[in-house]
């Protein structure tokens, strides 16, 4: 029986051909496209440094999560090993669980998230493919939570960033599903890179999602500041990255 660390022991294989561009890297483009997760971490940290300074480390921990997800995802696509696949899924699952427990719910809600996380962790060992669908459907619930917050918020900047986030997420998920469902077609036209596009597109969606989440969070948790969503390097640039700025409200006397 091969070791769980051995190459090609994963139950899930992606459309890109294995060992086509390297003898060491199983899925070449799916591996190198993880660079987007490594870039995401310093970008989020740099842009949202004010938030990181004012919130305890535990709350800001979702940002380093992109780094862990990147490391495990690189290892997974490089080896397509069973352990790689588990680490890839579990790192995403536990980051999402941490995000949920930080949403400020009741003890009952935290307990429910805990149970669901344990069930999904066990599922990763038994039905990893099904679990990947489950992880993606959590995005739908995140989207629902964002919509609830948007209903209470009239700031057009916030709505614009949410619209861009949804656009990138739809593109990302289409690539993820396209790679899984229509692999035969992509192989016929010799274009098996959709999963690597997913890596890049979901990173871009997170570039919009994170400032949005921390904007809502800071409205409740750091009331001494006025949160503003701004763009780097400037509002007028055609391509600009959103970030959270914390302004001190003007005091009359
Ligand atoms: C500070 C606010 C945080 C908001 C939520 C942030 C949650 C971030 C959680 C983890 C980072 C995600 C990184 C994705 C890594 C993907 C690696 C990968 O490609 N894995 C596949 C196998 O190679 C696997 O099949 C994928 C499974 C599904 C992953 C689903 C990730 C959902 C991330 C949530 C994105 C929200 C975007 C907008 C929502 C409308
Ligand atoms: Ca493959
Ligand atoms: Zn991947």
UniProtKB/TrEMBL annotation:
Catalytic activity: N-(9Z-octadecenoyl)-sphing-4-enine + H2O = sphing-4-enine + (9Z)-octadecenoate; an N-acylsphinganine + H2O = sphinganine + a fatty acid; an N-acylsphing-4-enine + H2O = sphing-4-enine + a fatty acid
Sites where the protein binds Zn(2+): 77, 195, 199
Gene Ontology molecular function, alphabetical: metal ion binding; N-acylsphingosine amidohydrolase activity
Membrane spanning residue stretches: 28-47, 67-87, 107-126, 158-177, 197-216
Keyword Metal-binding attached: yes
Main location per the UniProt record: membrane
Entry keyword set: Calcium, Hydrolase, Lipid metabolism, Membrane, Metal-binding, Sphingolipid metabolism, Transmembrane, Transmembrane helix, Zinc
This protein's GO CC annotations: endoplasmic reticulum; membrane
Cofactors, names only: Zn(2+)
Membrane topology: Multi-pass membrane protein
Pathway entry: Lipid metabolism; sphingolipid metabolism; Sphingolipid metabolism
One BP term from GO: ceramide catabolic process
Functional description taken from the UniProt entry: Hydrolyzes the sphingolipid ceramide into sphingosine and free fatty acid.
Family recorded in the similarity comment: Belongs to the alkaline ceramidase family.
Protein name according to UniProt: Alkaline ceramidase
Protein species of origin: Chelydra serpentina (Snapping turtle)
């Amino acid at each position: 029986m091969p070791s769980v660390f051995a190459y090609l022991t994963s139950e899930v294989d992606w459309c890109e051909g294995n060992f086509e561009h390297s003898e060491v890297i199983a899925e070449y483009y799916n591996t190198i496209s993880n660079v987007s997760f490594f870039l995401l971490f310093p970008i989020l940290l740099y842009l949202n440094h004010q938030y990181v300074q004012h919130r305890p480390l535990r709350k800001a921990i979702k940002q380093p999560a992109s780094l862990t997800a990147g490391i495990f995802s690189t290892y997974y696509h490089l080896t397509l090993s069973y352990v790689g696949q588990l680490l890839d899924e579990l790192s995403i699952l536990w980051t999402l669980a941490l995000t949920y427990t930080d949403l400020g719910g009741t003890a009952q809600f935290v307990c429910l998230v805990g149970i669901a996380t344990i069930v999904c962790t066990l599922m990763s060992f038994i039905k990893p493919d099904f679990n990947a669908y489950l992880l993606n459907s959590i995005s739908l619930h995140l989207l629902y939570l964002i919509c609830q917050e948007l209903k209470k918020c009239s700031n057009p900047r916030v709505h614009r960033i949410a619209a861009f986030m949804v656009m990138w997420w739809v593109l990302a998920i289409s690539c993820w599903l396209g790679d899984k469902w229509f692999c035969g077609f992509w192989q016929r036209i010799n274009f098996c890179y959709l999963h690597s596009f997913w890596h890049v597109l979901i990173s871009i969606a997170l570039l919009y999602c994170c400032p949005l989440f921390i904007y809502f969070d800071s409205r409740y948790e750091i009331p001494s500041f006025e949160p503003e969503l701004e763009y780097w390097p400037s509002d007028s640039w055609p391509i600009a990255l959103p970030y959270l700025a914390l302004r001190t409200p003007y005091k009359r006397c």
